[in-house]
């Protein structure tokens, strides 16, 4: 994404890194906020949803 911003927006390297950092932080913040809003569907489904959400969390962490 950084090279794309540099090319399309005419950013210097540091500006592009800053923009990507802000986008990543905003994405993680939305994930955390959305996770807090998940309703309960009962013990069994809640457990499965929690496992799924933890997998998403690991995927996000791995990408960072």
Compact description:
The protein is mainly α.
What does this structure look like?
With 64 residues, the protein is mainly α. The protein has one domain (2-63). It has three helices and no strands. Helix 1 (2-9) packs across helix 2 (13-36). The longest helix has 24 residues, at 13-36. The relative contact order is 0.10.
Ranges where pLDDT stays below 50 over 5 or more residues in a row are: none
Radius of gyration: 17 Å
Number of strands: 0
Q: Largest sheet, if any?
A: none
Keyword list:
single chain; 64 residues; mainly alpha
Question: How are the elements arranged and paired?
Answer:
Layout: H1 2-9, H2 13-36, H3 43-63
